[in-house]
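Let's practice the habit of predicting before peeking. Look at the sequence and jot down your guess about where helices and strands might fall. Then scroll down.
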Amino acid sequence: MKDQVYHIFAKLVSDPEFNSWVRSKGDERTVFWENWARGYAERQEAMINALDFLQRIQFREAALQDREKEEMLEMILKDKPDNSSGASQTKIHWMFTQWFKVAAILFLSLFGGYTLDKVLPETPMVEEATSDRVFHTLYNPKGRRSEIKLPDGSRVHLSHHSELVFPQRFFGGKREVMLKGEAFFDVVRNDTLPFIVKVQGFDIRVLGTSFNVKSKANEYQSVVSLVTGKVNVDVNGGEAALDLNPGEQVSLDLIKSEVNISNFNVEKVIGWKDGIIHFRDAGMDDFIEKMEEWFGVNFQVFGRPSKDWKINAKYQGETLEEILLGLQYVYAIEFKINGKKVWMKINESE
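Done guessing? Here is the structure:
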């Protein structure tokens, strides 16, 4: 298996969301993973290998004790290369060790909350070569945010469950990137090289400015929110061209193809990049979805509230446990957190 394919494969088999999809094959997640792999030969090969790998392995039902998990992880990940047999033997040993690491990470992530980032070096970007041009793909799963500096010096804050594709060097008289999910851009001004962000339904063109873009597949909406400078938004491949001023945002309903321009609260829209979570009249489902996305966990909820939740809150720096403890003062809930799994029981009566 090529190194690049192996790296993607290792990421997939240790990704809780990918594992969950393999087990359930839900329609929405199927569309996500098909789109994720479309157009990238290495991703397609890695995903096929990961699917086969996961479907062949039979996992034990009972989770190990924490001490046993630590001992198993330490034992499996011990890497003692034998240099006495030459380069060929070393390569065979390396491949064998890496496959053991993948199996260990997969097993322990399912039964103890370990993630790939704790075991393998942090290398979030995947390189894709097109002729003589190299593209990078930065993908954040749920529970992770990141910041990256682009080749021109522009900075991008990439949100949870989001993907950014950009070239190693900009070419063609423009600075073009592609986004799925949400990101905040702080673009270095260059009057001769326009900066273009391509998302579903929008082409966003700027020279130098800062703005937020949100285009998540499950929300069926793309939104551009301008903080400083000016942007030009091309809607649906040229159907309309709109100019925004600071404090304005344009949203496109991807189902109805309806466009709306409005003002927005800057902190509520871009606070996520500074670790701020905002809720305004949020229902239970919206609250749980945000917690899963922000902390990279999966909720199992027992019961339903007797009336709609209306959560209005601002969190910054609180842990998931602290947030849920605070929620207990308002709603009759019980909860238990075990690694990446959260059980929540609602005790309200009808």
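How did you do? The chain has three domains: 3-118, 125-269, 275-346.
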